[in-house]
Structures are given as structure tokens and as C-alpha cells.
Amino acid sequence: MKRLLTPSWIARHVGAVALVVAFSALGWWQISRAVAGNALSWAYAVEWPVFAGFVIFVWIREVRHTLRGDSPDTDSAPGPLDTAEPARPLAATGVAGPVGAPADARGPGGAAGIRRPVRAVRRTTTADEDPELDEYNRYLAWRNANPDARISDYPG
């Protein structure tokens, strides 16, 4: 519970209470206008309490997330770029190898519960395959090299 009593959390609590009170007051104000004959205010009389409910929903969600704390799927867990550990070969990390690879090539533990890295294959086209695509790529390269130029200045 001490995590919810830090200065930033106290500001969040005060902000949430202030928003709920303000949205509730605006809803009550719209109800009084609607009763006085403004038909459009009935929609706003429903809308403001919905906003207050959303603030309560987000506040509860953030409190639960903070109280959950050190679970491995929190945002405070180091990402792949934050680790200080040097890169290891795939066999040493236990990451599964290609489909159909022998079990010893998959590393210790096999593929159970470990994600494989995504390998993207880029296919390049030649002028024989798609000349319109090549012309468009030249145009985009020219636009990238000349960001201040007008489209009518393109030499192609």
C-alpha cells in the first residue's frame, strides 16, 4: 500500500476525485437544463456520468497494475534492449530452431514456452518484373532527397 502513497500517486488520487466530482456536477447541471426544456441536454446528462465512470475504471486499473508489482509482464521489466547480458547463440538461449530441425538443434528445453525470433525475408524486384514499381521507388527516393521541392519539379 505504500506504493499508492507516493507524491505522484497522491496527485493521481486527487485528480481522479476532482474529475469524478466535476463530471458528476456537469451531469447534474445538464439534468437541470433538460428538465427546463432543453432536449439536447438529456444526451449530455447521460454522457457526463459515463465520463466519470471511465475515470473510475482507469483509476482502478492503474491501482491494480501498481499493486501487482513485480510480475514478469509489467512495464518495469527490462526489455530486450535494456539487458546488460551479451547476446548468446540461439542454441545457448533455448530458442527453438527452424521447423523440422533436429531436437538437438533446437537447444536445451526444446520449443516449449519460448518464442522464436521473427525472420523477415525481403524480396527485391528488378526492372524486368515491375517497371512501374521501380519508377515509383525512384520518385519516392527523389521526394526523400528533395523534401522542399514541389511535385511538378520532379524530373522523371
Automatic annotation (TrEMBL):
Keyword list, A-Z: Membrane, Transmembrane, Transmembrane helix
Lineage: Bacteria, Bacillati, Actinomycetota, Actinomycetes, Micromonosporales
Parts of the chain that traverse the membrane: 9-29, 41-60
Top-level taxon of the source organism: Bacteria
UniProt name for this protein: DNA-binding transcriptional regulator of glucitol operon
Residue segments, region Disordered: 68-133
Biased composition regions of type Low complexity, renumbered to the chain: 91-106
